[in-house]
């Protein structure tokens, strides 16, 4: 087959895909009932269905499961956006890891709006300026994200979903490796590459920046400066990849929370996040943990956090398997409420899959 015939065949397939996408969009309109249902809930439900579809198919040599998931997520986002415009705030700027996580969850079709800080994401959603927001909550290397947990303590906000994003840092520059005198990035990224930088670029000064994307922009403008950032940031600023995957932990993953004002329905594979405080006395925390043991609920995450305006007292963030509407979860929450000084249900949401 000639190149011309091959291109015609590809064009024909593309038209068929677009026709099928249009048919799918009409079905989505019927399924969601127009604008009455919550946007984030639709995204969460769509993500759960995509996961089932991809996992139910036999392995494909042409497209990996990850590629299939990304393709369907992009199509799903475009269809949902056509039903109701969605504005989503994330910790900017563009090409930051928060931007990549937002794109992974919501797709390319939604209106992604960068803001300057984690509190700004919370505020944008609380004011109703944005339908949803996305913030980092923990990293497998550096642990909890203090600014995010602090905002959950101060502001009423619902977690509607989560995103697991593998974090692969890259050394990017327009300067040859041997002429690099400074390495810029945000503190967390530099921390996650500390050993690599010390051994591979001991002569370079390590400089903290506001974000990985801002560091990439600077590297594109200033000779001798390299950035630790994503491949996507490197492409955006036309930087050379000096070294790839320089993170000290090859299993480096950041978990992001999707914020909103909705409560996704159960999907049979959910998690529930709680914030609580118990009396500052011997055995109080152990008694609280016993409640979940007796209910047969698995705790997937626990963090302590200093209680504001107190001395040596703590709030606790926990995450457990199950949805808040599940009878066992409801009973455990009721039992904990009876003994806790404070208890906030931060949300129930589908469990994310690392892909």
Write up this protein.
There is one protein chain. With 355 residues, the chain is an alpha/beta fold. The chain folds into 3 domains: 3-167 and 253-260, D-Maltodextrin-Binding Protein, domain 2; 170-243, D-Maltodextrin-Binding Protein, domain 2, CATH 3.40.190.10; 270-350, ACT domain (Alpha-Beta Plaits), CATH 3.30.70.260. Helix content is 42%, strand content 26%. It contains 12 helices and 15 strands. It has helices at residues 3-32, 39-56, 65-83, 97-106, 118-127, 146-154, 187-192, 194-200, 212-221, 231-236, 284-295, 327-339, and strands at residues 87-91, 111-115, 132-139, 143-144, 158-166, 170-173, 182-185, 205-208, 225-229, 240-243, 253-260, 270-277, 299-306, 314-321, 342-350. Strands 1, 2, 3, 4, 5 and 11 form a 6-stranded mixed beta sheet that branches. α1 packs across α3 (65-83) and α11 (284-295) packs antiparallel against α12. The longest helix is centred in the first third of the chain and has 30 residues, at 3-32. The protein is globular. Mean pLDDT is 87; it is low at 34-38.
Helix and strand topology:
Layout: H1 3-32, H2 39-56, H3 65-83, E1 87-91, H4 97-106, E2 111-115, H5 118-127, E3 132-139, E4 143-144, H6 146-154, E5 158-166, E6 170-173, E7 182-185, H7 187-192, H8 194-200, E8 205-208, H9 212-221, E9 225-229, H10 231-236, E10 240-243, E11 253-260, E12 270-277, H11 284-295, E13 299-306, E14 314-321, H12 327-339, E15 342-350
Parallel strand pairs: 1-2, 1-3, 7-8, 7-9
Antiparallel strand pairs: 3-4, 3-11, 5-11, 6-9, 6-10, 12-14, 12-15, 13-14
Helix pairs in contact: 1-3, 2-3, 11-12
